[in-house]
Amino acid sequence: MSYLPLIIQLVSGAVAGNVLGTAVKSLNLGTVGNSIAGLLGGALGGQLLASIAGGGMATGGATGGMDLGAILGSIGGGAFGGAVVTAGAALLKMMLKPT
Prior knowledge:
Number of helices: 4
Largest sheet: none
Radius of gyration: 14 Å
Low-confidence stretches: 57-62
Order of helices and strands: HHHH
Helix content: over 70%
Number of domains: 1
Shape: elongated
Structural class: mainly alpha
């Protein structure tokens, strides 16, 4: 079992969470918060995309190697998941904040 796709998804999610937090100040959870939410979202989004796509990206294919499509899929799924979970966590935080 190769952990490379999961590592790529985690890093992509953390980067996307921090980019989203920097770009949209109202969704910023701070560097640590953005990173944690991005990591969680990257793992969830990347694995969800891999399972929808047939599992080839999650395992690296039958040969055990990863091709460019698998790497880009891991990056895309991780980044999308990281951004979505970071935005969701920030919106939830704003909704629960006492006024």
